[in-house]
Amino acid sequence: MATSISATGFKGGLGTSFYGSWGTSIVGEDYAMLAKSVPNHVRVAKPVRAQPMMKNVNEGKGLFAPIVVVTRQIIGKKRFNQFRGKAIALHSQVITEFCKSIGADSKQRQGLIRLAKKNGERLGFLA
Asked: Which BP terms does GO give this entry (predicted)?
C-alpha cells in the first residue's frame, strides 16, 4: 500500500509533532535568551604569516659546508658575504669567457651559470 506525504504528516494515520511554520519555530523567551547569548559583532583576527626567509635548502649539507660555516663565523657575516659575492662574480666571468671561447650563445651561458649554482649548493659552498 502506497502512502503519500502532506504538510500535516502521513495520511496513513501517523501524526507529526511539528505544528506551525519554519519562521515561528523559535519564539518568546527562547528567542530572547538566544539573542542575548549571541554577540553583536565578531572580531576576526588577521592570519599570522611567517616572515619569508631566503634560506638555502641544503643548509649545512655538502662536503664543503662545515668549512663555509666556520669561515663565516670567523670573519663575520658581512665580510663573508662580500667575499662570496666577489667569488661568484669572478666565477661567472670565467664561465662567460669560456662560453665566448667555444662560441656558446647567451642561453647556453645562462644554463651553465645555473648549473654552477646547483653544484655549489650540493657541494655546500652556498651553506
From this structure: photosynthetic electron transport in photosystem I; response to high light intensity
* Rounded Cα–Cα distance for residues 77 and 82 (Å): 9
Q: Residue 124, SS3?
A: coil
Cβ within 8 Å of residue 105, ≥6 positions away: 99
Rounded to the nearest angstrom, the gap between the alpha carbon of residue 97 and the centroid of all alpha carbons in its chain is 39
**pLDDT tens digit sequence for 28-71:** 566 667 667 766 766 666 777 766 655 655 566 788 888 988 99
Residue type, 47: P
Cβ neighbours for 10, distance < 8 A, ≥ 6 positions apart: 3, 16
